[in-house]
Amino acid sequence: MSVFDVHAHVFPRISRAEGRVLSDTGEPWLRDHGDGTGMMMSGGDEYRPVEEGLWEPARRLADMDAAGVDVQAVSSTPLMFGYGADPARAADWCDLVNARIVEYCAADPARLLPLCQVPLQHTATACEVATRAAAAGARGVHIGNHVGERNLDDGEIAEFLAHCAALGLPVLVHPWDMMATDRMRGHMLPWLVGMPAETQLSILGMMLGGTFERLPESLRLCFCHGGGSFAFLLGRADNAWRNRDIVRADSPRPPSEYTSRFHVDSAVFDPRALRLLVDVMGVERVMLGTDYPFPLGEREPGATIRACPGLTGADRSAILGGNAERFFAPASGRDALRVDSAAAGLAS
């Protein structure tokens, strides 16, 4: 049985001088204390204390061995997205970050799968960066769940998602830049309340906005943190769709009929919640996600899956690894040729 973690972050060694690729103030960057600890920095401000698994591949691999994790899909820390920058500058930044992630994963390419990031604020540039990254070895794309006031049902963001489908690149969606933070002061409430709400907003926006109707079914899309509050409130959305024409104006089918169009990770931390998530999504649409190496992640990878009631051995095997192996399977030969051709076109 393979154990494949689809939700694991990285912050490669990036100096403040390199951070100036994105911002004149030099942000974000990593301050390595040299003792196994460090600090994520935003310009001159301390953002979050971190440990070396975030930037040191040998430590990550040792942690994976200790936890029984065979493979990780490695994605940038959302602080690094750069969505507020000028698109050309953000493209240079993403190229730098993506190259560092590929370099990081080269420590063991069979176990560490690099995911790229893109300047999602500008669709054409984001498509170009994703194409370059795919040609350079990226196995997927990591995006935030919104850009400013534009959610994933935005036409231009949907155009980028269609481009990923054409390249055969899976897309991992992570909540970030949470709503109403002025009302969620203290106790990490933006992470505890805002993140689930952001993810539910993204999923329902795509469903009710008709986005899944317009996107190709070949798109491989996964939402982190178990899809947020989506599964618990899906019945409420279906009820609204059936009873109010304003809800179903752009969606020919109720929300529950679109669950086959995306995956979620298992980071819900309660076997009862995971049981509901599996019932809503189907066993084949849930994948192990830990949020490594952050302290709000699952400290014993797969513990919630193993404790989830009503799962068969085959179910557990699928959620722990089999589903992710299929989700991140390399692009077909035809898709690989398409990536190469697109990269050649960008270079010309």
TrEMBL record:
It comes from the Bacteria. It is an enzyme of class 4 (lyase). SUPFAM superfamilies: Metallo-dependent hydrolases (SSF51556). Keywords: Decarboxylase, Lyase, Metal-binding, Zinc. InterPro entries: ACMSD (IPR032465), Amidohydro-rel (IPR006680), Metal_Hydrolase (IPR032466). Transmembrane segments: none annotated. Signal peptide: none annotated. Its EC number is 4.1.1.45. Residues 5-328 form the Amidohydrolase-related domain. Pathway: Secondary metabolite metabolism; quinolate metabolism. Monomer. Belongs to the metallo-dependent hydrolases superfamily. ACMSD family. This is 2-amino-3-carboxymuconate-6-semialdehyde decarboxylase. It comes from Actinomadura gamaensis.
